[in-house]
Amino acid sequence: MDTGTTVPCRSNSSHKPAPLAPTVAALSALLARCTSLAAAAALHARLLRSSRLFGPPIIANCLAAAYSRLGATPSAVALLLHAPTASANRFSRNILLAALLKSRDLPAARELFDRMPDRDTVAYNSMIRGYVDSGHAEEAFRLVRTMRELGVRPSDFTFSILSSAVCSARHGMQVQAAAVRHGSAHRNAVVGNTLIDMYRRVGLLKYAVRVFWSMNQRDIVSVNSVMSVYKDDGQSSQLFECFQSIRSLGLSIDEFSVSTALSMCTTDEDLAKGDQILALCVKTGLLSHLIVSSAVIDLLCVCDRLADAVRFFEGMAAWDSETCNAMISGYARSGIMEPALSLFLLSLRKGICPTEFTFASLLRCSSCFGLMEQGTQIHALISKLGFEDDVIVATALIDMYCKLGSLNHARILFSRVCVKDLGMWMPIEAKDQNGEYQFWFSHYRYNI
Prior knowledge:
Elements: H1 24-32, H2 37-49, H3 57-69, H4 73-81, H5 90-102, H6 106-115, H7 121-133, H8 137-149, H9 156-165, H10 169-181, H11 184-187, H12 189-202, H13 205-214, H14 220-232, H15 236-245, H16 255-268, H17 271-284, H18 290-302, H19 306-314, H20 321-333, H21 337-349, H22 356-369, H23 372-385, H24 391-403, H25 407-416, H26 422-429, H27 436-447
Helix pairs in contact: 1-3, 3-4, 3-5, 4-5, 5-6, 5-7, 6-7, 7-8, 7-9, 9-10, 9-12, 10-12, 12-13, 12-14, 13-14, 14-15, 14-16, 15-16, 16-17, 16-18, 17-18, 18-19, 18-20, 19-20, 20-21, 20-22, 21-22, 22-23, 22-24, 23-24, 24-25, 24-26
């Protein structure tokens, strides 16, 4: 029966419009936000299927940059090496250069650098950084001279890289002079900070302080750096003046500020001032940082408050090698061997890797208590973990064997050490037995 109603017909020609392809800008933004290799690989596959990978060069560049950022440097290198020559541009070559350097292929990176038709500041900075990271500081400085001769202007980043490579006062002054000429030393906080660290590293502490006060812009890293300089120079009053001025500069105290201040209190054995800083740490929540916790433990142990240090240590939510070292050192300083060894074994079971300072503290315990068996067991572990060549550990081992009367072991260790510092001679001077000085000083004359 006809009800008079009509049923609408579905047209066969009505299809959903095809989705629009993402724009180059959208793809670039998406690649820049990639947080996993799986996501980058998925985008890579989609770009290959759509034949858009080597369209505008920016897409391949962004994909290579994403691979490099996410730790897949070989994928970045392979992508750019297989890119059509016509699609490569200056940015492509700079990204490829950075990827090769990140994969530690310095010869290939230098070959690419030499073939680049348009080497800019970014390319020079990458190559200079590659040489510095590989321990070839002279090559880095040689490249800077070439850069200057060709009229390529260095950037602030150039001076930051060079400052980290400086090993001598002469080179340091040259780098600072160049940074001042280009206006980077005073206006850029990052450059100023690296110059402070550079002068601290080469021992020119007064120069480091001058750099700090000449800076037009200072950040918390600047203040922390100069505080470390004052700490190294034993200038506690200047250090605490800096510490108190942090807030007046509009900056916020961080964990490095308070740990440096606490270390100065430890050096001065100033518990009253240390308690004030400790209260500030509790108030600001900085006590949760392990670097602060280890400084607190050091302070309490030095000021003969071992029981408070133990309670504080046991109440911590987590430990690391630095906090364990501080506690082991505290036990050693107080002449308590058994808890130090127990904590050492517990830290190993927890997967906390010992450092050279851990072994130095344990060896001091062994030598003080005449524990040859424990000392040789620790020595065996040191050899197994590859710490025997470390100067700090080697000095502690020689000191232990000398104090325990085992001069043959001390002689063997002394002979094996390539670099002998002054601290290594101290235990030797205390032992004038059986003509041993003849052996030690023959080596001393040889090293001179």
